[in-house]
């Protein structure tokens, strides 16, 4: 396994009076795509938010590129190179695709070579460059949200359930784009519920249940073991969704 870019050790987090994360242990290897799976309410989104400093960490530690970022404020975490695409995507519907990307490039004008790289990853963004983002399809909006996150170089990309509500053909386009990001050794932590999408892309996998990671290993191992899938994810034998 590659060296870790991010390590969560015994991470606990509360939302208001509720204890949501009960000691999350998670390793994200550098240059790989790691999938965080688990049923609804297992704590996947809360784990991403806690990494970004958006949810109150009450115990344990988060180490990123050798630094303890557990108590860092969110802007400092973002500046250190972690990009976050929340489930709500955070794009501006009334602004054009171009304007959405211009606003995301906070350090200065967009880099032309990087923009070309983004167009290669997500061709619809070039096609709809001057269209309001609100008129894009669900999959294209997701592409724009990811493009905003990587319009400037980032070391780690956190993406929360990009396939949610998307048609199968669009999910396939999105998987192709993630394949390309993977080929370029971008470190990615992907929260997902769609097991077929996850197994196609994931190298490492962690499964959460009730606020903790209950399994971690290679995706190849989980992908081959239907009993383990049934036990951890409640997937019917041979019935992958
Ligand atoms: N704002 C909140 N107030 C109270 N409880 C919350 C809040 N947000 C999340 N929770 C609870 O925290 C737990 C974990 O939620 P989380 O969204 O992290 O789960 P998840 O694994 O991402 O699931 P999903 O796929 O449904 O988003 C759930 O029991 C949820 O009800």
Automatic annotation (TrEMBL):
Pfam families: ABC_tran (PF00005). Keywords: Amino-acid transport, ATP-binding, Nucleotide-binding, Transport. Signal peptide: none annotated. Transmembrane segments: none annotated. Residues 6-235 form the ABC transporter domain. One of its GO terms (biological process) is L-amino acid transport. It comes from the Bacteria. InterPro entries: AAA+_ATPase, ABC_transporter-like_ATP-bd, ABC_transporter-like_CS, BCAA_Transport_ATP-bd_LivF, P-loop_NTPase. One of its GO terms (molecular function) is ATP hydrolysis activity. Belongs to the ABC transporter superfamily. This is Amino acid/amide ABC transporter ATP-binding protein 2, HAAT family. It comes from Marinobacter daqiaonensis.
């Amino acid at each position: 396994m590659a060296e870790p870019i991010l390590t969560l050790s015994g991470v606990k987090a509360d939302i208001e009076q509720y204890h949501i994360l009960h000691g999350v242990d998670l390793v994200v290897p550098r240059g790989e795509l790691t999938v965080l799976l688990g049923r609804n309410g297992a704590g996947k989104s809360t784990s991403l938010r806690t990494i970004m400093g958006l949810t109150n960490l009450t115990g344990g530690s988060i180490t990123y590129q050798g630094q303890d970022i557990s108590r860092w404020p969110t802007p400092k975490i973002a500046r250190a190179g972690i990009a976050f695409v929340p489930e709500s995507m955070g794009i501006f519907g009334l602004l054009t695709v171009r304007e959405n990307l211009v606003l995301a490039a906070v350090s200065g004008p967009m880099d032309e070579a990087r923009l070309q790289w983004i167009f290669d990853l997500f061709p619809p963004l070039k096609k709809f460059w001057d269209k309001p983002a609100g008129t894009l399809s669900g999959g294209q909006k997701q592409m724009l949200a990811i493009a905003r996150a990587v319009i400037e170089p980032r070391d780690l990309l956190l993406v929360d359930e990009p396939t949610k509500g998307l048609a199968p053909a669009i999910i396939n386009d999105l998987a192709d784009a993630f394949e390309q990001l993977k080929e370029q050794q971008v470190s990615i932590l992907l929260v997902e519920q769609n097991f077929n999408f996850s197994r196609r892309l994931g190298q490492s996998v962690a499964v959460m249940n009730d606020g903790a990671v209950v399994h971690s290993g290679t995706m190849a191992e989980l992908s081959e073991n239907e009993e383990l899938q049934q036990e951890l994810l409640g997937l019917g034998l041979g019935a992958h969704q």
